[in-house]
Design brief:
The chain is an all-alpha fold. The chain is built from 3 helices and no strands. Helix 1 runs antiparallel to helix 3 and helix 2 crosses helix 3. The model has no long low-confidence stretch (mean pLDDT 86).
Length: 70
């Protein structure tokens, strides 16, 4: 297993996009669990999951731009 810092940007990007796909696939369940665990309103928990998913995609996009600048 490679450490994150030892992976090339393409591999890291692929992993981030896979994570984003999983977050999107399981967003309802994750929001429900967040509601049960933290007592948040469901709508707020859904927003949190969406934010995390968008953040994950943005991380991938920043890495692609960073690699292109080299």
């Amino acid at each position: 297993d490679l450490d994150w810092r030892d992976m090339d940007s393409q591999t890291r990007g692929d992993m981030l996009l896979h994570l984003a796909d999983l977050l999107e696939r399981d967003r309802d369940e994750l929001a429900r669990l967040d509601t049960l665990e933290n007592g948040k309103p469901l709508r707020e928990a859904e927003g949190d999951v969406s934010f995390i998913n968008r953040f994950t995609i943005a991380l991938d996009c920043s890495k692609v731009g960073e690699e292109a600048a080299k």
